[in-house]
Structure formats: C-alpha cells, structure tokens
Amino acid sequence: MSSTRQDAWTHDEDLLLAEVVLRHIRDGGTQLQAFEEVGKQMNRTAAACGFRWNSYVRKQYKSGIELAKKQRKERKGKSKLSESQTFETASVSEQNTNSQSFTEQNIDQSISNVIKYLQQLQSEQGTSETTIRENEKLKQQIQQLTESLEKQKQSYDSLKSEYQSLKEEYSAMAAILEKARILTLQHK
C-alpha cells in the first residue's frame, strides 16, 4: 500500500486541481468526485484535495467557477428529453441531487469544522505566545527580586555583625565602668 503525500502543494498541482474541479462543475459532477480523481493522480487523499480547494485554490478561480456553472446550466437547457424521459430522469436526478447536496453539504460542514479548528489553534497559539512573553517578564522580575534579596541579606549580615561588635564593646565598657564604680566605692 503506497503512502499518501504530505508535502507542500506546487503551482502545477493547484492548476490540475482547479482544472479537474471546474470540469466536474461544468459536466454536472460533484466536487467530491473531482477531489477523488485529483487525489489518485497526485497520490494525495480526497480530503487533502478538498481542503486545498476550499482553503486556497477556489478563491483564485471565482470567475472560472461562475463560468463553469453557467456552462453546466446551458448544457442542461440544450439536452431536454421527452416528457416521459424527463419525469424518470427528474426523479433519479432529484435523488442524485439530494445525495450530492447532502454529500457536498457534509464536505462543506467538515471543511468548516477544520477551518474553525485551525482558527482556534491559531488563536491559542497567539494566547500561548502572549503567555510566553508574560512568563519571560515574570522571570526577569524574579531575577531582579532575587538579586535585590541577596543584596538585602548581605546588608543584614553586615549590620548584624556590626551590632554584635557594638554589643561586645558595650558589654566590655559596662564591665569597666562597673569595676570603676566598685573601686570608687572602696576608696571612699
């Protein structure tokens, strides 16, 4: 079983896709049939072809699509059948149209869901990028606060050491004064 391609689309592949889809529109076929035909020729899935058509190529061929629809309508007008054939054909055609309409509607709905999903991913990626930037700012703030805390600790240690030194000097001076007082009392 051969694997399907997942590489980027070339301009020639876009042209082939447009050509086949427009031919199917002109001939009264479905886009799904066109996607399957192109997919086989390019070794891609019909879904990939449909997604490429709806997300990019279709926008490039709006006037071509209108012309193909017009040609399809003209062909239908030229090939009128007898009334009995028309009735039989109409009921079969109606069933096919309903089936095609349902299938195309499902494809359009699926493609819509894929587009919404991709837009949601893009939105989440934007949110994610914002979160990353905020995290970077917070990391910088944490770094600055950590450095400030370290300086405050050093200052505290220095003041504590100075306090201890002054406390020892005070105790020594208090002891000297106490001795002097005792000596003064003894000489009186």
From TrEMBL:
Residues 82-103 have a biased composition (Polar residues). The keyword Coiled coil applies. Keywords: Coiled coil. Residues 128-176 form a coiled coil. Residues 70-79 have a biased composition (Basic residues). Pfam families: Myb_DNA-bind_6. Residues 1-57 form the Myb-like domain. InterPro entries: Homeodomain-like_sf (IPR009057), Myb_dom (IPR017930), RsfA-like (IPR014243), SANT/Myb (IPR001005). Residues 1-61 form the HTH myb-type domain. It comes from the Bacteria. Residues 68-103 are annotated as: Disordered. The keyword Coiled coil applies. NCBIfam families: DNA_bind_RsfA. This is RsfA family transcriptional regulator. It comes from Heyndrickxia sporothermodurans.
